[in-house]
């Protein structure tokens, strides 16, 4: 791996363009042989569920699901904020393969170990 990248995303269906750009950046980082993790909070946690990315297509972009799929196919990870998941009634079994509940302590540890962070 060439390095570690952490991308935070708080947007989902409520702002398809911002959500798509975050996943576009993450899929590009993963395709560039970087250890890539996305930390999903707020509305973005739905994007880690089996049907959560369906139908999200910002004007001028490919569907968000294509970027999410590319991220996962290139070894990327999705970390879902546990507090956000609880607030929205999501559990670990609702998430796609490669997604998991991971809180702020894990994010901080990841960045302490040299990850570049993008918002």
Describe this structure in words.
This protein has a single domain (4-118), classed as DsrEFH-like (Hypothetical Protein Ychn, Chain: A, 3-Layer(aba) Sandwich), CATH 3.40.1260.10. The protein is built from four helices and five strands; from the N terminus they run βαβαβαβαβ. The protein has helices at 16-31, 64-73, 82-87, 104-112; strands at 4-9, 35-40, 77-80, 99-101, 116-118. It is globular and about 35 Å long. The model has no long low-confidence stretch (mean pLDDT 94).
Order of secondary-structure elements: EHEHEHEHE
Query: Strand arrangement, largest sheet?
Result: 4-3-2-1-5
Q: What does the largest sheet look like? A: 5 strands, parallel
The CATH topology is given as Hypothetical Protein Ychn, Chain: A
Please give the alpha-carbon distance between the first and last residues. 21 Å
Our count of helices gives 4
Q: Tally the structural domains.
A: 1
Strand element count: 5
Structural class: alpha/beta
Task: Please give the radius of gyration in angstroms.
Answer: 13 Å
Q: Roughly how much helix do the residues carry, as a percent range? A: 25-40%
């Amino acid at each position: 791996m060439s390095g570690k990248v952490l991308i935070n995303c708080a947007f989902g269906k409520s702002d398809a363009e911002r959500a798509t750009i975050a996943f576009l950046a993450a899929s590009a980082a993963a395709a560039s042989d970087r250890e890539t993790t996305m930390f999903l909070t707020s509305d973005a946690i739905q994007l880690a569920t089996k049907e959560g990315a369906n139908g999200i297509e910002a004007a001028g972009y490919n569907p968000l699901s294509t970027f999410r799929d590319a991220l996962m196919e290139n070894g990327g990870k999705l970390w879902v904020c546990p507090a956000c998941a609880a607030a929205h009634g999501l559990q670990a079994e609702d998430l796609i393969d490669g997604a998991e509940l991971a809180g702020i302590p894990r994010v901080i540890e990841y960045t302490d170990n040299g990850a570049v962070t993008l918002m």
